[in-house]
Specification:
The protein is mainly α and 311 residues long. It is 70% helix and 0% strand. The protein contains 13 helices and no strands. Helix 9 (183-196) runs antiparallel to helix 11 and helix 9 (183-196) packs antiparallel against helix 13. It is found in: Membrane.
Length: 311
């Protein structure tokens, strides 16, 4: 779906820029509200995420002793900028991607990984034992969830015969929903996204009862706000990618809205059903199971494409 609007409007306001930030905060509220209702709690009011961000932006940012000042201030900016840049190649809100080229799926995958790397480096940049432990857990968990998440995205890409997200979107729209043809890949993608974002039960890297806030323990003010907004933006992009690849593609705003909300309902349910996993369970179990089943399905798709023309 094309929009007859100037590029600067598309990038800064809708469907990128300010809309992406606002929708990220809205989905954060929806996720927290759903988890609360699943657990028979009331949950936050609709403006709570926005109020939290404004409060953090207005607070003083204190650089802890021993931290590199440039990295301390720069990492949150890089994390948010990477997430916002990834949105340029994704069919946000069901519209055509702002930019598209062959192989943009690989670029988006690396841009989404930048958030986790920046959080890990932010923790390692501090001398706090809580930050260092959180950074270690974050960088350890990235290896357990990035590879399965990538494998889950490669399944539809191979089925479509393209590494271009827009072409995969068109293929998914014209054929049967790939959640039917590749159900394992869908499950691996959804769980992998939750692990990337350190959502419960995969929140060992920022376990409040163990290590305060993990890698971001020493962050306050603007830095913490940027990291938080970056995670919200990455949540939106991740849900959009899964809906694009596995739920028949995205063709209009209503299509995007109901499919991403359904995915959010499922993710919130998984957060409510399971208690926090230990870091060894989070990493070891999912690496063995998630990566293996994702690889097996990927091999099955490749064999199917090779054998199919022979019959």
């Amino acid at each position: 779906m094309n929009l007859p609007l100037p590029s600067i409007v598309l990038l800064l306001f809708f469907p990128g820029g300010l809309f992406l930030l606002a929708s990220g905060l809205a989905y954060e509220w929806a996720d927290r509200k759903l988890v609360a209702r699943y657990q028979n709690r009331i949950g936050p009011r609709w403006f709570q995420p926005l109020a939290d961000v404004f409060k953090l932006l207005s607070k003083e940012e204190i650089v802890p002793a021993g931290a590199h000042v440039g990295l301390f201030h720069g990492l949150p900016i890089v994390a948010l900028a990477s997430a916002l840049t990834a949105a340029l190649y994704v069919p946000m809100v069901g519209f055509n991607a702002s930019y598209s080229f062959k192989g943009d799926l690989v670029v988006v995958f690396y841009l989404l990984s930048a958030m986790t790397i920046c959080i890990g480096l932010a923790g390692a940049n501090n001398i706090s034992r809580f930050s260092i432990i959180g950074a270690t857990r974050t960088l350890t968990q990235i290896f357990a969830y990035e590879a399965p998440f990538l494998l889950a995205l490669l399944g539809p890409a191979i089925a479509a015969g393209s590494w271009n997200i827009s072409e995969i979107n068109a293929y998914a729209h014209e054929n049967v929903w790939l959640i039917v043809a590749q159900p394992i890949g869908f499950l691996v993608a959804l769980v992998g996204l939750m692990g990337k974002l350190e959502l419960p039960p995969f929140d060992a890297p920022e376990a409040e009862t163990e290590i305060v806030s993990g890698a971001l323990t020493e962050y306050s003010g603007r830095g913490l706000a940027l990291f938080r907004i970056g995670k919200d933006v990455e949540l939106i992009i991740g849900l959009t990618l899964i809906a694009t690849f596995y739920m028949g593609g995205l063709t209009n705003p209503l299509d995007w809205l109901w499919k991403t909300v359904v995915l959010l309902l499922v993710a919130a349910g998984l957060q409510s059903l399971f208690a926090r996993l230990r870091i060894d369970q989070t990493v070891g179990m999912w690496w063995r199971v998630g990566a293996l089943v994702g690889l097996l399905q990927l091999l099955a798709i490749i064999v199917g494409r090779l054998v199919g023309p022979l019959f």
